[in-house]
């Protein structure tokens, strides 16, 4: 099937995307007789499951990022290229970057998804989502700026709007953000202001379905909701957001329509495939699902293009359960390893069985001492679940120094309730420069 | 002199600026019978002496920043306000913020300095300086992007320009940046690229005077230069930069004029006072020096305005040695404490002696195992100086969690030569958003 194995030029595997799928595929090829090129727009791997901690000031961006070059530094068959893929040609077997064209023998596409506003892209500016480091820093700036503005605001109604935080979407990201924000408002910041009482902050978590964490077993959804309510979060299920404009969130629950005045709205609902999905469809004729994800074969390849694989969140793999596998890190990691095995077997002219996802369970953290864990054979919640959650998340951080720093910061937060990384940076009005160094500096009034 | 002490309203001390001067003044007033308002444009105190570590990827912004509210959380007589002062009226004794006016009884101005291009402000875009967190992240982006661009560049001359780094100014910041960049290029990154050899990078440190670290004793300047050269830095003294344009740095050494092609130029020369200096001059008639710093009285107050004090880098205090005290953290900290003592004494109608700076010495780090320390009675360099430098810098970090994290990261870098915080964020072309999620996505070529 693949002939390059017999020539002197090694088989060239090109991987697009350095997330869980792409990085694990690259690492699994470290001893294979192939040449690997990993292309990513960014120069780092991001540990997305902890991004909500950056957004709420618990961790620094650097704590959950690892330089791709450092991870793969000693993997001599692998080159990292920072760049964006702007085209591909499945017949010539090439991908195009702005300044060069790269030939591949096998192509692995793992470019993931971004948020989706269900046709309401104008909501993006008022209700940012959480996918990138820049998103997290933007959300951190919004959250902490809202408390600062409330402290200065004298009009009670406006102050209330500054202290109202709406989270749209009750999946793991929404739940984790809500829990972290409740801790922030009701514990961390409680002594830090003089003119406002941060315990008056309202944190609303809105979910369209009849329960939060819909992919989890119902009893865990109930436990999660109870835990959030104990922390002070208002959970509203069966609630659809119908508009977000000018700090007003309009929502509908059955027949009831309500408007709420909130200066901070965060989006944790809906996602759509990255543009690479559409490009693949145009180039290969492969079918996309409604979210733009690529419908893959049982071996993660594309129909009619056995040398192109799509893995991770961008892939719609429905062969196992009849519905797409969830967009979570373990799926992407297993698919990355699977495809790298498949490529190596092919080079030896061996075959492999179809991809099979080994589901070790779901987990979501709710706040201090509270999480929910579903391992299939056992479900548990509360403090043991929280410890399990922390252990697993630290374990899967790529580099040892990240593990160490995150562990210490967690222990420190646990003991002190502090969140140290509360920097408001990149202010929109004044992106950089020194204090007061402004052109509009008003000449002092002289009598 | 001050009558408020006898009334029921407490004496109100307004401090502008939460750097070393302002923060230490506020903290020294914690038990005083006064009300304190600390105003800063930012919500955090920045430990500027370690900013070069953020700029070179050794530390995260959060590691060297402490939220002002958290530091002063339990200091009940003190309120923190995030905002910019846009005017002041010394007769009415008020300062203006965009949304409110604040009356003071005593005013402490500690707004520091920013960089200065000696009338060549157009150089700023090509040669950024290092004063703020945003500056540091911008410089980090430039440094790591240069190596990425070099890896992709095939033209040898352009590649050489990407691998040429010019640092203008041989003071402590320039020296510390040069040392860190040499470690980066010649150790940290040496296995990370495939098409370039990072040991070919050139790091040039340019200084106009006849030696680097001009305020230090000459023998330490020599040691510092030797250490830098051992690390691979090219040090050029008596060299003036006459132009920076389009990646070309023009410099003059005596009669000799040279041009060098460098994609990364960093500015560590010259500084000027923040705009607050000029505003004070207009409002009070106080004299400024050539750099815009405020010439203060022997008690740090302004001539004719005993209730207004200027401290830290913004102050020109020449009463002790005949020339201005250097713009370093210890001066600002001692001045902050001095003014807070003076205000408290005044309230008791006592007097205090003039300000006197207790100089404990100078120190600058050059790189791994190398620093120079001048304690007046003893000068030393090399590994003991490096340990002293690290110890002192960690000791003066405000919060315990910063101390702990910085210590661990330093130990980790020392053992592994790693720099973990190498994120290239806020790319100019594409500030946020997902990989490949671009409008100019080229439709694949179909045959």
TrEMBL record, chains A, B:
It comes from the Bacteria. Keywords: FAD, Flavoprotein, NAD, Oxidoreductase. It catalyses: a quinone + NADH + H(+) = a quinol + NAD(+). Its EC number is 1.6.5.9. InterPro entries: FAD/NAD-bd_sf (IPR036188), FAD/NAD-binding_dom (IPR023753), NDH-2 (IPR045024). The keyword Magnesium does not apply. GO terms for molecular function: NADH dehydrogenase (quinone) (non-electrogenic) activity. Residues 12-336 form the FAD/NAD(P)-binding domain. Pfam families: Pyr_redox_2. Belongs to the NADH dehydrogenase family. This is NADH:ubiquinone reductase (non-electrogenic). It comes from Moorena bouillonii PNG.
């Amino acid at each position: 099937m693949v002939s390059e194995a017999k020539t002197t030029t090694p088989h060239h595997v090109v991987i697009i995307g350095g997330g869980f799928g792409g990085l694990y595929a690259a690492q699994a090829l470290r001893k294979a007789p192939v040449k690997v090129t990993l292309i990513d727009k960014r120069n780092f791997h991001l540990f997305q499951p902890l991004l909500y901690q950056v957004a709420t000031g618990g961790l620094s961006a650097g704590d959950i990022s690892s330089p791709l070059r450092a991870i793969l530094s000693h993997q001599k068959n692998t080159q990292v290229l920072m760049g964006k893929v702007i085209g591909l040609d499945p017949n010539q077997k090439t991908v195009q970057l702005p300044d060069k064209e790269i030939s591949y023998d096998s192509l692995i596409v793992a470019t993931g998804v971004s948020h989706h506003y269900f046709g309401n892209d104008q909501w993006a500016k008022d209700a940012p989502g959480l996918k990138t480091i820049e998103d997290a820093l933007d959300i951190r700036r919004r959250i902490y700026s809202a408390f600062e503005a409330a402290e200065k605001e004298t009009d009670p109604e406006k102050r209330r709007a500054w202290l109202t935080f709406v989270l749209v979407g009750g999946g793991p990201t929404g739940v984790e953000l809500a829990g972290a924000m409740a801790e922030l408002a009701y514990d961390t910041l409680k002594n830090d202001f003089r003119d406002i009482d941060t315990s008056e902050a309202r944190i609303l978590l809105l979910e369209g379905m009849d329960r939060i964490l819909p992919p989890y077993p119902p009893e865990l959804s109930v436990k999660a909701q109870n835990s959030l309510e104990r922390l002070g979060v208002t959970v509203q299920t069966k609630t659809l957001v119908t508009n977000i404009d000018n700090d007003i969130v309009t929502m509908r629950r059955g027949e009831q329509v309500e408007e709420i005045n909130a200066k901070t709205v965060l989006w944790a609902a809906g996602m759509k495939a990255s543009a690479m999905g559409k490009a693949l469809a145009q180039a290969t004729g492969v079918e996309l699902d409604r979210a733009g994800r690529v419908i893959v074969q049982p071996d993660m390849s594309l129909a009619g293009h056995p040398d192109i694989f799509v893995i991770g969140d961008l892939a719609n793999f429905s062969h196992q359960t009849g519905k797409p596998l969830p967009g979570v890190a373990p799926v992407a990691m297993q698919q990355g390893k699977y495809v790298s095995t498949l490529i190596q077997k092919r080079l030896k002219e061996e075959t492999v069985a179809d991809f099979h996802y080994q589901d070790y369970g779901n987990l979501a953290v709710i706040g201090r001492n509270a999480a929910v864990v579903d391992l299939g054979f056992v479900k548990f919640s509360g403090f043991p679940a929280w410890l399990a959650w922390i252990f697993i998340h630290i374990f899967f951080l790529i580099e040892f120094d990240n593990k160490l720093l995150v562990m210490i910061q967690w222990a420190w937060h646990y003991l002190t309730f502090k969140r140290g990384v509360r920097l408001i940076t990149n202010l929109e009005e004044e992106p950089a420069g020194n204090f007061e160094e402004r052109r509009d500096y008003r000449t002092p009034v002289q009598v």
